[in-house]
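Standup notes
- DV: blocked on the single-chain target, sequence here:
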Amino acid sequence: SEMYYVPQVSQMPAEEHPTKWVGDRSVEFIESCDPTRPVFLFSSFIHPHPPFCPPAPWNKLYRTGDIPAPFVPDNAEDFVPLLHRNFSTERLGISEKDAKRLKNFYYACVSFVDWQVGRIISALKARGMYDDTLIIFSSDHGECLGDYANMGKRTMLDCAARVSMLMHIPGAAHSVRKAVCSLVDLAPTILGWTGIPYDAGEFDGVNLLCESHDYVFSQYDNKTNGAYMIAGAGEKLIYLADIDRYYY
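- DV (later): unblocked, structure below
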């Protein structure tokens, strides 16, 4: 609607907000299960998602002048074909000041989710389950947030296509991996860690605990409207079918 990209304070109080609801149900599940038996929990937060509407007083967390302005390169027009025309900041009437306010509320939404994640981890520790629980934190897509004078997710640029992939692996030391991975790797990784037999040939992904990719693939839409990507750790190739053009 016309309010989709208008930052706003949630009409629901923090105690009733959907993000808190997911946190509550997740904690209740952990507190009710038998810690001696295997369990699986999938906690899916809709935020941060437009309209960015954190509850009060979380909306006040980032009321500073330090929020960076959107990244708009001098040659921004060169990136227009890679972006969805319906979500340009010009079409939506979003100024640089508006985009910074959107970031303010976006960050607040992220922090409210982070608090729920902290509650979930605390519940696991209280039940004595944390040290033998595999935890994976990821997302389905990013958000341009005014970068390249665009909003939304419908692009293969990093602001939308590069998402978080954090894992707590019991018994493993802290490390940072540079190899590319994909959401298709989640299922084989979870199955591999739990020791559940599976046919690797039925999966496009790999077990990230013992395997890796040289490249990963992504696709938005299809046929003549499709945008296709192959990405390595330091390079990316995008093909736009509607204009028959490659970007490297």
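- Follow-up: The chain is about 25% helix and 10% strand.
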